[in-house]
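Example record

One chain of 229 residues, shown exactly as stored in the release files.
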Amino acid sequence: MPTHLITGAGSGIGAVLARRLLDRGDQVIALARDAGRAREIAAELPGASTLVADLATPGRVSWALSKQHLPERIDSLVHAAGVVDLGTVADLAPSLWEQQLAVNLISPAELTRLLLPVLRVSRGQVVFVNSGAGLHAHAGWSAYAASKHGLKALADALRSEEAEHGVRVTSIFPGRTATPMQERVHQQEGVEYDPERFISPDAVATTILTALDLPRDAHLTDLTVRPGR
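Predicted structure tokens for this chain:
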């Protein structure tokens, strides 16, 4: 029974992926930012277990996990958590840069570092849910795009480093997806939000499952998903 640790499992793509993994009998561990959120996620995802660590403070992730029981085996680590704050370079405060870099880039690197020993044992897989902004930066998206460009670099380097240990690394680059984050983006852009215009979280989850379920003789490294309408 494969075991998957998912960040961002309380909402959007991460939540849909967690439910689909649980429905087929896999074990899911959801990373939550605090104990209260962990209880909420456990109630929303019956059968899932939780760990607590705040990705907004990368320097404390190791300490937080050291106080909890970690699984002896992890078959996949899926980084689906993320934050976004739009703004021009002229207007973005350092705190908004720091928050997006912490949650979107530095904490994924730290969490991966901490879990690599068990991922190596299982010859597991790391999946980074990136973004179209990780490939192209547009006006108003500087901090978010920088964090996602960095996430691609992290994935590419990790893939080369861990090939000898049999750890597969996949980056998923979804276009705009109908999630609460996308609704927040539209609020910041000051435009009406119509989820029917965008990719469904279920479609992105299917893409992730395709990468996870691929036989060992193949390796999906980079997958770009765009709206089909």
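Notes: The first strand starts at residue 3 and ends at 7.
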